């Protein structure tokens, strides 16, 4: 298994510290009757504030009491403070972890412990810095979808195009080029896959350290992910 440290090395190159992967928290049972949403990813899911901004969108649409974020983590290292005071902080973001490792070693357990009706994920940055092949990264994406559907055949999936990575741009370009055909090939009526384009027109000035979004970047991500999530919520309730 690959050590979840490649993003740490990239951040060191850029002169920025990255929070290490935390120990897993005990899984908590979902609230009865609520729609379960799993934010899945690496540090771009764990240590940034876009999840809080999307939760504000959920609350503004009137769904805050009908849905919940799920996952083994509740970390909030940036002390994100959305307008909604009681936002759900659960997630499955793990700093420094690879899509390949998550697919091969963790996703089955996570889906069993914290079942989801919707999963939204951005993965691949650490795989790129670890110089893994695009084909292997996309195979990991496929395994994540396969496992998620085995746990819930009607799960809805949002896959994000990966944020720009100035230090190693081509790997991200290759993943993002592969995502549309990959999503089309796996899309189904029962378990639809939609793409949140978090890359196009995302300025590198919205990266606080060359990897992670700053507040402006968080707002861009929320604006790309939130509407797709709200559509899925409306369809599911």
TrEMBL record:
Pfam family membership, one: Lipase_GDSL_2
Positions of transmembrane segments: none
InterPro entries: Ester_Hydrolysis_Enzymes, SGNH_hydro, SGNH_hydro_sf
One GO MF term attached to the UniProt entry: phosphatidylcholine lysophospholipase activity
Organism domain of life: Eukaryota
Organism in which the protein naturally occurs: Sporothrix schenckii 1099-18
CDD domains tied to this protein: XynB_like
Signal listed as a keyword: yes
Signal sequence, start to end: 1-20
Alphabetized UniProt keyword annotations: Signal
SGNH hydrolase-type esterase domain mapped to chain residues: 40-218
The protein, known as: SGNH hydrolase-type esterase domain-containing protein
